[in-house]
Structures are given as structure tokens and as C-alpha cells.
Amino acid sequence: MEIKGTKDGILVNLENQDWLEAKGDLVGQIDARLDFFNGAQLILDVGNNVLRAKELGELRDFLSEKGVLLSGIISQSIVTKETAQMLGMTTKLTKLIEKPVKKMKPLDTVIAGEAAVMIHRTMRSGFKVAYQGHVVVLGDVNPGAEIIASGSIVVWGHLRGMVHAGAEGDEEAVVCALDLSPMQLRIGSHVAVSPPESGKPQPEIASVKENQIIAEPWQY
Amino acid sequence: MNGKVVTITSGKGGVGKTTTTANLGIALASTGDKVVCIDSDIGLRNLDVVMGLENRIVYDLVDAIEGRCRTSQAMIRDKQFETLFLIPAAQTRDKNAVSPSDMVRLCDALREELDWILIDSPAGIERGFRNALAPSDEVLVVTNPEVSAVRDADRIIGLVEAEEKGPAKLIINRINPGMVKRGDMLSADDVVELLAVKLIGIVPEDEAVLVSTNHGSPVVLNEKSRAGQAFADIAKRLKGETVPWMDLDEKDGFFNRIGKMISGGS
């Protein structure tokens, strides 16, 4: 016999027992633990046992004498259910009444994303980041600093150090910066150096196109 | 008294750390503050030369740290300023004679007696630099407006940040306004933009610095020198005063005009 508390009251599971035996056990339990059961609402799961009005009615009266309200019967038997309903007992647990929430398929607009590391500081000469994934720097990357990423590299600031995107061979990786003037820029197996500065810096994105690194202004 | 420990460092050699230390020491002492300059470049001392105190050295930094003398015995009083002292580096030892914790201990003792403890750091990022950085409350990074010096300054500023001694403040030394104007030299703005730290002084290139260094009489004592004026301004800023930035073009502009007239006429 299994006893557990639920929202609806104390649920006693008697489904695997023959009714007479189960009833005896239940009465014994209640007598033994009157303090616990006194004032409680009781729900019995009787499994396949077929119970008629007489049996349930007797049990209910017996229990109410002990201060226990028999408020529900859970059963697979249609006869038992009907009997319980006739006696004004519930035949379902609240939990069971609730429709099982269907797992919603994630919409296509939810993107899992990929591993990246965020560096919120200026990377000065001598600083180095090596990361399996993408690297985002919020700050400048000064000459003498190095970033090596298996994915792409985004610098929200001046990029003047050495960067290597797609360091494990990903030629699809990109490097972008508000001011893209790295000492040296590598994507996969390609290497490029910045042309001499000309004019006001603008956001650019570098990628491999037709086997060479091309930097283009960022269109937004 | 609760003295402040200021470390003057640069990374690259020859940018003017020692000159800056000597001049700031004098400028601070001239206002009556009690100042000690410590030369932490063990084995390559020269702050004593710049301050003109070379011939008075009896004990040095290593003697004081190793307990061969009292700290006060290693403090050489300046020729001119009663409240200015020098603790010279040992010339016959190397950097490993001193540890960062030795420096912290020494400076903690000095704080009780003095207003300012200025530490002249050796070039580089090795033990000597660590020694100079360990006790510091404030770090001044000296650089020249040239790419290699700025690169090293950037490295040093990063290390200072990593040691949680930052943010360092920047002194740009030996700037030549004429060359900046012609686009032949990095401007102060270029340097500050790259290093992204607070500027505490811009010192113009000035022949008087070399002359006074050779005489062992720091340039800040020369009222006509613009470099001397710039060092005096830095000292005031260290003390928390707001000092307007010197107009670097003033004097040079005049010569530039003459230069232009001549070149325009030919």
C-alpha cells in the first residue's frame, strides 16, 4: 500500500490488491495512524476492483466515523467509477484532469547559437586569447595583442593586433571590426595584411572570397 | 603621515623615466612636501647622476633592504631642497638582490615619514619592473611619441592593469610640436587614442633637458624651460590641482612663422 499527499487529498494506492484485503489494510493503517488521517480527504486508487454502491457506501460511512472524508475513487473499472460518481465522489485527480501540455515545437525563429567568448576590455600588447568558438571583443585590440579563434572574430572597437579566425580550417569564418586595420589578419589558411590607412575608419567585414581575404565595408 | 608611492615606468628604455622622476621630485619638494626618489634600477643606476648626488653616495637601496644600514642612512639629502632625498640603486649588485615584498616593506616604512615616494623603474618587464610596481599607489607611464615606445607603453599599461595597480596615467615626453604639425610625429591625441588612458602631462622636446641632466641640475629649476614648466605642471596634477594644458604651439609657432617666411621667399 502506497500513501502520498496530493492537491486533492491523501492518495492511497490499492490498485494491485484484492479489494477485501486492501480494505483491511486500509482500515488497519487508519486505525494505526489516526492523528495523520483525522480530518483528511482520502482518495483511493482501487485499480480494477469492481465496487458497488453498498461497498463504497459502507467504507465511506466507516471512514467518516474516523474523521476521514472519502472524497474520490480512482479506478479503471467503469462500474466502480459510476458508483463513485453516484455517491458524489470525484473519479479523477486534479493532476489528471489537466490536459497534458503538448510540448511546443520550437519556432524557427529561436536560434540555438554557438559558443563564443566575450572580452569586455582593451586588449593591449602582449595579451592573447585563444578560443574554440567565436570571439567578441568590446574594446580595442592593440598592436601586439593576438586573438586566435576556431570561429569568427568580432571587435567592437579598433582592431590593430593580430587575429586568426577559422584557425582550425573554417574558411567560412569572418572577422569584423568598427575599424579593421589589423597588423595581420588570417582566416583559415589565408593571410592578409591591412593596406595603409586611408580616411576615416569605417566598420568592415573580412571573409574569404575566391581564395583570398577580402574586406568590405559593413552595410547597415 | 601617509605618503603616496608613485612609480614611474615605461617599458622601453631611454624615454625619460629618470628625468621625469628627478624633475617631479624637485617640483614636489619645492612646495615643501617631503619627497624621496628611489632608483630601483639596480646595477644600472643613474638617478643619482641626474640629480647631481653621485659623489655623496655611501649606502644604497640594497644596503637598506639587507639591513646593513638604517633606511635614513641610505637617504641622501638633495643639495638644494631640504625635503628632497634620494635612495640610490646599488651599482654592484643585480635586480635579484631585491624582491617585490622587500620594496613593499621599505615603502611602507617610508610612508610614515614622507609625503611622496617616487620610484624610478628600470626599463623592461622583468624583476626590476615588478619590484618598482609592487608598492605603488599610482603608476605614471612615460612614453615618447614614436611607435615603438607607444607599443611598449601599451604592454606596460596592460601589465599594470593585470597587477590591479591601474589605471596608469600617461606622460608623453619629448613631443616636438613642429614635427607633429608637419605630420612627421605622432600627436598627443594619436597616442592617447591608442593607449586609452588618462594623460597627466605632455612634455615638449627641449634642449635644456639634456644640458641640465649633464649638469646634475634638473630642468624644472630652469624657469625659462618649457619642459621644466611641463614637469612642474605634472607635479601639480599629482597633488590634485587642475592645471590648464600648456599651449605647445606658442613658441614654436613663432619660429614656424619665420621659417615659413624664409621658405616662402626663396
Question: Key features?
Answer:
heterodimer, A: 220 residues, alpha/beta, Pectate Lyase C-like, 2 domains, six-stranded mixed sheet, five-stranded mixed sheet, 15 strands, 20% helix, 35% strand, rod-shaped, B: 266 residues, Rossmann fold, eight-stranded mixed sheet, 8 strands, 44% helix, 16% strand, globular
Structural features, described:
The complex is a heterodimer of chains A (220) and B (266). The model of chain A has no long low-confidence stretch (mean pLDDT 86). Chain A is rod-shaped and about 100 Å long. Chain A is of the alpha/beta class and 220 residues long. In chain A, strands 5-7-9-11-14-15 form a 6-stranded mixed β-sheet, with no helix packed on it. Chain A is 20% helix and 35% strand. Chain B has 266 residues and is of the alpha/beta class. Chain B has a single domain, classed as Rossmann fold. Chain B is 44% helix and 16% strand. In chain B, strand 6, helix 7 and strand 7 form a beta-alpha-beta unit. The N and C termini of chain B lie far apart (64 Å). The model of chain B has no long low-confidence stretch (mean pLDDT 90). Classes of the chains: A alpha/beta (220), B alpha/beta (266). Chains A and B meet through loops of A and helix 7 of B.
